[in-house]
Every structure is written in structure tokens, then in C-alpha cells.
Amino acid sequence: MGKNPEKNLIHSVMAEENPAFSWLDAMEDAIRVVNRKLEIVYENRSMVSRLVRAPHLKKSFPLVNAKRVFRDGQAYRTELCIGPTVYSLTCSPVIEGGQVIQVVQVFRDITRQSQFTTQLFGDQLRISREMNFARSLQEDMLPSLTAYGPLRFNSRYYPNNELSGDFFDLVPLGQGKIALYISDVVGHGISASILTMFVRQAMRSILKEEKIRQPGKVLDSLRSRFTEISISDDQYFTIFYALFDTQNHTMTYANAGHNAFPLLKRQEKVEEIRARGMFISPLFDQHRYQQHRLVYRTNDRFLFYTDGATETMNEAGEPFGTDRLMDLVRNSGLFMLDTIAQTITDFRSGNQKDDIALLQVDCLD
What we know:
This protein is of the alpha+beta class. About 30% of the residues lie in helices and about 30% in strands. A 6-stranded antiparallel β-sheet has the order 6-7-16-15-12-13, with helices on one face. Strands 2-1-5-4-3 form a 5-stranded antiparallel β-sheet, sandwiched between helices. Helix 4 (about 110-140) packs parallel to helix 5. Residues about 1-15 have low confidence and may be disordered.
């Protein structure tokens, strides 16, 4: 009878009494057959083996869902823990003459899968907490400044994911000067958010520690710092940088690949502030950024934004576009950013697919 005669004896009795079910012995799962009186009429070799190894489990293998199967005539599945083992239990009807005459219960050991699922859930929960922390940190780094001399600032920030690749900042420099930039990092998520933090720290170091002010040189320095770090070639970002001088009423600026050109509203006219320049990437280590200058006037209004606004699609696959945005800037009043955000939301089909950042600058007396 082999090494375990008790095991073979128990199984042989069950097999001799119900030879029609002996084919179930080939199954690795523990299987039991129950009649309408909820009596066990067969247990396969795997089931018997488990009971022999741990007789106390006999009472722990309940007739779960058997009554429901006899009543409803359909299969049910559940999970149960017996000691340290987790089982997936499937109860299926055996139908004859339109009636359920028996129920087959299949106990599948899913302990490993359950442990993996539990671990995976824990990992996801940890990652979610870390991403929420990173998002909170990223949002806390956004500027809270609302005024600098005659300039007034207003902004909106709409990440499409928990972490955004869009970012903007305001850096007061003294003597009536304030630096402003808006940046768009390729992609989303953790890697994009880390790059936004790099841009912020690098820009503040360039402006406050190195005291570089001229836009072209600022972007040259930023590019140099970016190419010095070890990063893959597919990582890059765009940035539009502007320096406002409130004493001379000027804005000098330079652009590194930011194709969402800022808008200037002057009286009833709205125009793009166009400037060209290569986006900042490890692929390009030699590039000079051209500097431009304009004189702003009282009541001028600027809108700096990222392309998530103009590239939002409707149901027909049509982008929101720059023309619609310019019309909103032209016709909107005090609550321009809220109007823009709501209009884009109404236009959009489905979920937001890209980050959107909006920064408004009003020039007062």
C-alpha cells in the first residue's frame, strides 16, 4: 500500500464506492462531490491526502454554497481560508433530467497568488502614497506670489495625472525685476515630475546664485546643466523664459522649443509673442538662444500656457487650437483663466490627456 497505508485505505474505499468519479483523481485540485442530502459521495485523491495530513481540517471544509447551487441551479465561486491556506472554491451543478442531482466542489490552493496579490496591493498603496506626497510637494513649489510692483499674477494648474510635467515659476530679483518662466517636460508621472524639480532648482540657482539675468544666457546655462546630468536621450523639455523690468516697462525673453507661444492682449487686439529656439535635450549640446525685447503698456495682459490647452480634442478629433484661445483672451474679463478652463473642459471629449498650465500677468499703472 505504499508509504502511507492510511491514506491509500481511505482513498480506495471512496474509489470503490464511486468508480464513476475515479477520473477526478488525475486532478491536482481537491475535489468533492455532494448529493442533495448534502452528503459527501466522493473525495478525490488530492482531497483525501489533505485530510490525512491534517485531520482537523475535516470540519474546516464546509459545504459552502452547495445549498445555493441546488436551489438556483447555477455555479458559485468564493474564497476561503483554512488555516494558513487560501482556497478558491467553485461549486458547480450536475444536472440530470432538468434537476440538480449533485454538486461538484473544486478547492484550488491559491495561497501563493493571494500572497502575491496582497503584496502587490501593498506595493501599489505605497506607490500611491509616495505619488500623492510627490504631487503635494510639486504643487507646493508652484508660486503663490500674486503681485510684484504694478504686475498682477493669476494662475491655474491642471495635471492630467497624479504627477505633472508642466511647471511655471516667478522669481523676484529686486530692483524692479522679476523672472518668469513656463516649462513643459516630455511625458508624465514620476520621471516628468523629477525633471520639473530639476528645472526649478537649476533656474533659481542660475538667477539667484549665479545672478545671470539675460534670457539667452539663462537658457544657455540651463541647457549646460541639463546636459551634464546622466539622463536618457529621450528626456527633454521646453521652456519660455521672460524677465520683466517694471522700472523700464520692458519684457525681455527667450524660447527653448516652447511651441505654445505666449499671448499678449493690448486693448482689443491679441497677438502671439513668437520666438524660436531648440528644446533642451541631451542630444543638443551646442545652441545659442536668441534674446528678444518688447515694451509693455498699462493694461496689457499676458497669458503664458502649455500646449495641453490648445491640443485638447473634441469628439470629431479637432484640436481646441490657438484661435479659440486667442478669442477667449480677447473677450474674457476679470475671470479669464476660469473661463478658459471651463471652455476647454466643455470642448474636450473624454478624459484630459495632457497637463494644462495657465499663467496670467496683468500690467497696471
